[in-house]
């Protein structure tokens, strides 16, 4: 990846103060910058937007407070020093790894009778992406994403690593763009000995999850390309797993369907407690492997787990023991499922209401909605004004906080806007856009 203008700016400042410093930085060091995009737009919204209209936040809130499960909070004061202050293993706490795996089997029907590794604990899903990149991506390798993607993947893989990210248009005819997906995978398969594909459903930023048909077709495409002789690594980023608001989206992770489809296909599951149990700051994620193994699968998975833990040992060493203990105790709470259901219900009500409001024909001249049915976000595609101009105008004149992505898209985090404010929110967005026109 070339050095971005943001990195160039930092390099120029460093160079002007001490020209030797810039020579001392590594290639990665020279490429690094602090991303502006979502983080700076959120920071701006925190100072300018009304709290009730701050739809930039990547966590969930309820009545303007952080959403939380009583099972999590009840565990915060009840942790022994030996379960929190001591080091956790680089692999993660064994019982947590086993129980997370058990939960995966319960929530992913297709995993039945399939063998997968034990999950290794990462410092949130972000670190899971980074561990994956260290283990599987060489400089100049390609990773395939849809054009609607979580921007931090660039930082982890292209800025810190040397990965080329290839995009395909995510949507066609109101659904997932299978044709574009297949074309891009095949194109890369022709040019590379291995192809890395990221699959993120529910998707950030659109809130879309594929349906059964689309899921089957994705599995079919990847399996066929593997059969034809290309090594495929399919990474499912399941950050928003379980936040499903309609019948159409698939109930399980694509990982479950990909993990023993072909010997040349490795499925990697990145998931975490972050959003599944509403504990963003605890930083507990997992990386899990599944593929076809011809010898003793336990031994092979153990070898992959050891390599993964070696990477963790050599970077963050191990993940917070206190955080892992809180997550483990929460998984064991008899009330967890019911508490999760209640919170998902709150988010679902917001999502369904937005679908009604934003699709009102009175707004049709200003935007169209990208398909969404799950997760934290929905995205508007603006028809008449530039998205960043609209964002700034709405923030300054209406105190509404949104995230602009590219020229046309505005991301609305309904995870952080209460149901009673949604109607006003979209009415104001529309008014603002009209004034700007
Ligand atoms: C698609 C996606 N993947 C990964 C992450 C990172 O999750 P974590 O906070 O566990 O690092 C996010 C968070 O915003 C996300 O939206």
Task: Looking at this protein, list some descriptive labels.
four-stranded antiparallel sheet, 17 helices, 44% helix, binds pyridoxal-5'-phosphate, Aspartate Aminotransferase, domain 2, 437 residues, Aspartate Aminotransferase, domain 1
Could you please describe the fold and organization of this structure?
- By secondary structure, the chain is α/β, with parallel strands linked by helices.
- It folds into three domains: 1-34, no CATH class; 37-58 and 338-436, Aspartate Aminotransferase, domain 1 (Alpha-Beta Complex), CATH 3.90.1150.10; 72-331, Type I PLP-dependent aspartate aminotransferase-like (Major domain) (Aspartate Aminotransferase, domain 2, 3-Layer(aba) Sandwich), CATH 3.40.640.10.
- The protein has 17 helices and 15 strands.
- The chain has helices at 5-17, 19-24, 27-31, 37-48, 70-75, 94-107, 124-136, 152-159, 178-191, 212-227, 254-258, 273-276, 297-313, 321-331, 336-358, 387-398, 422-436, and strands spanning 61-62, 65-66, 120-122, 142-146, 164-168, 171-172, 175-176, 194-199, 231-237, 265-272, 285-290, 367-369, 377-382, 403-405, 409-413.
- The strands form four sheets. A seven-stranded mixed beta sheet has the order 3-11-10-9-8-4-5, sandwiched between helices. A four-stranded antiparallel beta sheet has the order 12-13-15-14.
- Helix 8 (152-159) links the parallel strand 4 (142-146) and strand 5 (164-168).
- Helix 7 (124-136) packs across helix 13 and helix 9 (178-191) runs parallel beside helix 10 (212-227).
- It is globular, with a radius of gyration of 22 Å.
- The mean pLDDT is 96.
- Pyridoxal-5'-phosphate binds next to helix 7.
